[in-house]
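mind reviewing this stuff:

——
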Amino acid sequence: MAGLPLPAGIASYGLSLGVARIDETLPAPVYALLTGLNAATVGIIALAAVQLSQKAITDKLTRILVFLSATAGMLYNALWYFPVLIFAGGTATVFWDYRIGQRLLRRFRPRTDRDSEAPVNSMEMGEVGPSNTSAREHPARLRQFDRTSNGNDKDLRDDNEERIVPAAMDMRLFSWKSGITVIACFFVTFTIIMILRGVLENRPRGFNLFANLYLAGTIIFGGGPVVIPLLREYIVAEGWVSTRDFLLGLAIVQAFPGPNFSFAVYLGSLAANSSSELNAAAGAVIGYVAIFTPGLMLHTGTMGLWKTLRGYRWVTSCLRGVNASAVGLVYTAVYRLWEIGNIDEAYQSGSSLGKDPWWVVITATSFVGGMWFKLPPPAAILLGGAMGMIWYGVVKM
């Protein structure tokens, strides 16, 4: 947990101390500035969603998973809902790649004369495609062969050959025993925390904060923007941080170096500050440890096991679906932030940015600037704030 996350975490903590001292009602120009920042942030996150999609979508199934995860996340909200969507994505790719659904249908479907001819047809196809044994073991390769009408024998031979990592490039920093130990310790602690979270009544704010952020840190896949809908659901929905402070911090943290996970430090400090049980520094430390520990433990443990795990196709297949579903949740974040990004005196909890076309222009400017002109996020945030002030000068004055 060293490196950039620590400086970004310290900056996020300092930001939270300043935001905690802001009055509940702000001057009108500040609302315009904040809304401009929010609109630019939505554009940045939308761009991140598109870029992550380009990496996560590898076939039609992952394209469908990104779409379904995004739309399902827009339609319903619950603490358990996002983990279920991500798990369902991983299960779907395993079912698809191993053709489990087709096998079940064939098992329970009455046999017909057409079915009895199927083995003959498959034998005939085997003469022009990959061997039947290879097709059974690697159904994804068979689909790839079918899509490539002019596939050559050399590509097939290369694909079937076992890939051997040279000894000089094999980074064995941890043994498989150490990897299993670390992962087992993680799952034990995760299980204990989740059980206590579910059965204890009148839990202290510090434990609730740690448990929620620990859960968020565990189920995050696909990059920093994925954390945004989870943090909003696990912190703002609990009533610990206001929507205004969440959006203000999110806009400014986008300009900080390091991962978006440092945003949890900001939220942890504010969540503790709103309670008499904790001080802001303790909340910041809880947020930092809880959000980074799951990923650090899983990454460390996997380093010792990955050489073995990567040989199991169901593992990579499951991760492909998990990643696609997680990316879909970034689109959910774009939609939900869009619906609460417009803040003024009458709508302290936020309203849709679509109420005024100027905010739409700011969002589009941020997106296009990053996509086509490589505008850095800090510059896009500052430009959004400046355009918000221009709106105030033209419309309100």
About this structure: The chain has a mean pLDDT of 81.
